[in-house]
Design goal:
Elements (H helix, E strand, L loop, with lengths): L3 H12 L3 E4 L6 E5 L3 H11 L8 E3 L6 H4 E3 L2 H10 L4 E7 L13 E5 L4 H9 L7 E2 L14 H8 L5 E4 L12 E4 L9 E4 L5 H8 L27 E4 L1 H13 L4 E5 L13 E4 L4 H16 L5 E5 L8 H10 L1 H13 L1
Bound molecules: threonylcarbamoyladenylate (TXA) and magnesium ion (MG).
Pfam families: Sua5_C (PF03481), Sua5_yciO_yrdC (PF01300)
Protein name: Threonylcarbamoyl-AMP synthase
Organism: Oxalobacter aliiformigenes
Length: 341
């Protein structure tokens, strides 16, 4: 865990318009001063992210949300009371004083108050707690999000555009925050842009309305692109009943497989797997381990990553969303390989 000197130094780096990676309870963020357009531009450049994909602004506990947003619906206040600090991002109308760069040009703004103690300490000292730290996940665009400081180093190496990496251990939640759009609450209602640990039912219990799915004209959100959170090796998602036959056929084709499974394989069918990780656990534990597992499988040197599908229930929504996006490109490749055999 980093100490207060490191945190103070990191705040000074941010105040100078440079970038700092820091831990949050969801994933590590690549932070810059949200109100400094050149810091925001540096985030897009380092991540190699299209500049029309808005960033989330992280604020300190008790921050004045009216500074960032011109309209705060009653539902937003209730959700902040219950879920902040924590893994819920709210999209609200952006105040005109906030430069549009951080919002990818949208008239809205994404706000989140993280619960990780290092993130909170950084936010409390950065511009005396009155600033906002814009931070996407600290990974190359489209790649697997980092849940340790080591992952961030693996992503960006010693790139001098990254001024510091704060180490706060392994992120507790392990997948990115739930994103709820309340910027058109009066006309459209609450819209769930990205599932996460805070579920739709928990939101409905607080505001009395279940969030709806986004329509096709909704603002672009990188976490909502079909392929995202993806390893470099093609990955495919396979239902439990097809797992064994798929592995056998891949083996027969001379394919080296790295496996992420959720139920145990029959002992008599021991395959020669390049790497094998079994996560036989509840959704929260699975989420906590997911990205570290994908990174490990990605380093295995296998030809394909096979991921056993997890249950299709509410508790698994956030995990299933990430698995589907991780497997988006690889699915076709593996299916073609199987057709050939
Ligand atoms: O858990 C998290 O949310 C992590 C940590 C670091 O806080 N951050 C994160 O950021 O996942 P990023 O950039 O990887 O994903 C942010 C998502 C993007 O899909 C972005 O498009 C969406 O939030 N977003 C942010 N502001 C928005 C806005 N004004 N309108 C629509 N979507 C927005
Ligand atoms: Mg991301």
């Amino acid at each position: 865990m980093d100490n207060s000197d490191d945190i103070l130094a990191a705040a000074r780096i941010l105040e100078a318009g440079r970038l700092v990676a820091f831990p949050t309870e969801t994933v590590y963020g690549l932070g810059g001063d949200a109100e400094n357009p050149s810091a925001v531009a540096a985030i897009y450049a380092l991540k190699n992210r299209p500049s029309d994909h808005p960033l989330i602004v992280h604020v300190a506990p008790g921050a004045d949300i009216g500074y960032w947003s011109s309209h705060i619906p009653e539902e937003a206040r209730k959700l902040m009371d219950v879920f902040w600090p924590g893994p819920l991002t709210l999209i609200l109308k952006r105040a005109s004083r906030i430069p549009p760069d951080v919002a990818g040009g949208q008239d809205s703004i994404g706000l989140r108050c993280p619960s990780h103690p290092v993130a909170q300490a950084l936010l409390r000292v950065f511009r005396h707690g009155r600033g906002g730290i814009a931070a996407p996940s600290a990974n190359r665009f489209g790649h697997v999000s980092p849940t340790t400081a080591r992952h961030v180093r693996d992503e960006f190496g010693e790139d001098e555009r990254l001024g510091a990496i704060l180490d706060g251990g392994q992120s507790e939640v392990g997948i990115e925050s739930t994103i709820l759009d309340l910027s058109r609450m009066e006309s459209v209602g609450p819209v769930l842009l990205r599932p996460g640990k805070v579920g739709s039912q928990q939101i409905a219990d607080v505001i009395g309305t279940l969030p709806i799915a986004p329509d096709r004209n909704a603002p672009r959100a990188s976490g909502t692109l079909a392929s995202h959170y993806a390893p470099d090796i093609p990955a495919a998602l396979v239902p439990t009943d097809k797992l064994l036959p798929t592995l056998v056929r891949l083996e027969n084709r001379g394919c080296q497989v790295a496996l992420l499974h959720f139920s145990s394989l029959p002992a008599e069918r021991k395959m020669a797997l390049k790497e094998e990780i079994g996560l036989f656990c509840a959704s929260e534990v699975y989420a906590h381990q997911l990205y570290a597992s994908l990174r490990k499988l990605d380093k295995s040197g296998a030809d394909v990553i096979v991921i056993e599908a997890t249950p299709d229930t509410d508790a698994w929504k956030g995990v299933n969303d990430r698995l589907a996006r991780a497997a988006c490109h690889g699915q076709d490749i593996v299916e073609r390989l199987l057709e050939l055999s």
